[in-house]
Write a structure and sequence with these properties.
Elements lengths: L14 H10 L4 H8 L3 H9 L6 H11 L20 E3 L7 H21 L21 H14 L10 H7 L3 E4 L11 E3 L6 E4 L6 H17 L8 H15 L2 H4 L9 H11 L3 H10 L5 H14 L15 H11 L4 H7 L4 H10 L10
Helix pairs in contact: 1-5, 2-3, 5-16, 6-9, 8-9, 12-13
Length: about 375
C-alpha cells in the first residue's frame, strides 16, 4: 500500500536550495519564518529535509526570497559551503550574516560552473600536494611557496598575472558582487570540490588583488585542515604570499639597505606589488633596520591610499567569460543550460559578470 502524504505538501522541493536562497538574501531562519508566518523550527525542518513545505508556504517563501518556484525544485541539489571551512581575511569585522551571503554566492557560482562544465572543459585542478610541516616556520613556509612555483613551472621574476594563474590551475577566482558589504574582504574555501578564491567587491587596487590572490593560495596550500580565523593562520598565509610573489633569493639583492623611494618605486612597477609590501619585505629580510622601517611606514601613512605609482587596473577573472564565448561559438545556448539547471537569470548574470574580464568603456 502506498504511503500518503499531507494534503497540499510540495513534492518538487530541494532542501539545499532553500538554505542557499535564504543565506543569499541575508535572512536568518527566524526572519524568514516571520515573513512567511510559520515557526523557525519549520524552516529548520525544511532545510534538513525532515519535512516539505505546503504549496502555499513555498509560494510565500518564493515571494519573500525573490526567487522563482523553479529554483527550489528537486533533482539538482546545491553543494553547501560551511563557514567553518572558509578562510575569511576579515573574520572578526564581518558579521555572520554577511559571511553566509558571500558563501551562498560561492555555492551558486560552483553550480554555474558545474552546469557549464557539461559542455566546456575547464582547466583541471592542479593544486600541488605539498607535505606541510607542523612547525610552519618562516623557512618552511618559504619552502612551500617555492614548491608551488616549481610545480607550476613559473620562471624567475615577477608573476605576470596572479588571477589568471589561479584560473589556469583550476581554481575559481571571482570578485564578490557589488552589493556585498564592504567589510567582507577576500576569502577562500576548498569545501565545494573546486577551490574558490573571492576578492573584495569592486575594481580595487592591482597590487592588493595580486597579494590577496597569493594570500588565499597560501590558505589553500598550507591550511586544508586548519581552523580558520586565527592571527597565526593569517600571518602564515601572508608570509606565503610575500615569498610567492617576491621570492627571497630573487628579491633580496634588489632591495635597498636604506629608504630609497626611487628604487622602491622601480621595484613596485617591476614586481607589481605595493610599496608597503616591499618595505615590509625589506624589513623582514633584514635589509631595512627597525628605525628605517618605522620612518618608511610613517611616509606611507602620509601618502595614504592610493599609493603613488599607479599600476593600472586590477587583474580580472577571464575563465567564465571565455567559457561563455566558446558556447556561443559552438551555437550552444547557455541560457537554456542554466534554465535546465534551475538557475534564474539574475543569479547566473551575477556570477558570469564577476567571472568575465572587465574592459573600460570608451565614451565620446
Amino acid at each position: 500500500m502506498r504511503a500518503t502524504r499531507p494534503s497540499g505538501q510540495s513534492t518538487d522541493f530541494d532542501p539545499s536550495r532553500l538554505t542557499v536562497a535564504r543565506r543569499l538574501r541575508g535572512m536568518s531562519k527566524a526572519a524568514l519564518a516571520r515573513e512567511v508566518g510559520i515557526s523557525p523550527t519549520a524552516i529548520t525542518q525544511f532545510e534538513k529535509g525532515g519535512a516539505r513545505p505546503s504549496h502555499g508556504v513555498l509560494a510565500q517563501m518564493c515571494l519573500t526570497l525573490g526567487l522563482p518556484r523553479d529554483f527550489f525544485g528537486a533533482g539538482n541539489p546545491l553543494a553547501l559551503l560551511p563557514a567553518s571551512e572558509a578562510h575569511f581575511r576579515s573574520l572578526r569585522s564581518t558579521s555572520a550574516t554577511e559571511r553566509e551571503k558571500a558563501l551562498a554566492f560561492g555555492e551558486v557560482s560552483l553550480e554555474v560552473v558545474r552546469l557549464i562544465e557539461n559542455y566546456v572543459d575547464f582547466p583541471p585542478l592542479n593544486l600541488p600536494d605539498i607535505s606541510v610541516p607542523e612547525s610552519m616556520s618562516p623557512e618552511a613556509i618559504a619552502s612551500c611557496a617555492a614548491e608551488v612555483r616549481a610545480a607550476w613551472s613559473l620562471p624567475e621574476g615577477p608573476i605576470a598575472n596572479m588571477v589568471s594563474l589561479l584560473e589556469a590551475h583550476g581554481i575559481l577566482a571571482l570578485p564578490l558582487p557589488e552589493t556585498t558589504d564592504r567589510k567582507v574582504d577576500a576569502f577562500s574555501t576548498a569545501a565545494g570540490g573546486r577551490p574558490l578564491v573571492f576578492f573584495k567587491p569592486g575594481a580595487g587596487d592591482k597590487a592588493r588583488r595580486r597579494f590577496d590572490a597569493a594570500h588565499e593560495l597560501g590558505h589553500l596550500v598550507l591550511h586544508p585542515d586548519t581552523e580558520p580565523g586565527s592571527k597565526t593562520v593569517e600571518r602564515q598565509a601572508h608570509a606565503f604570499a610575500a615569498e610567492f610573489l617576491m621570492p627571497r633569493r630573487q628579491i633580496e639583492p634588489l632591495l635597498p639597505k636604506r629608504i630609497d623611494w626611487p628604487t622602491l618605486h622601480d621595484l613596485k612597477q617591476t614586481w607589481q606589488v605595493s610599496l608597503r609590501a616591499l618595505v615590509y619585505r625589506a624589513h623582514e629580510l633584514g635589509r631595512l633596520s627597525d628605525a628605517s622601517y618605522r620612518r618608511a611606514n610613517q611616509q606611507l601613512a602620509i601618502w595614504g591610499l592610493p599609493e603613488p605609482g599607479e599600476l593600472g587596473p586590477a587583474e580580472s577573472p577571464r575563465l567564465l567569460g571565455k567559457a561563455r564565448a566558446l558556447l556561443e561559438e559552438n551555437n550552444i545556448d547557455l541560457a537554456s543550460i542554466l534554465k535546465a539547471g534551475r538557475i534564474p537569470t539574475d543569479l547566473s548574470d551575477m556570477v558570469l559578470s564577476a567571472g568575465t574580464r572587465i574592459r573600460p568603456n570608451v565614451t565620446i
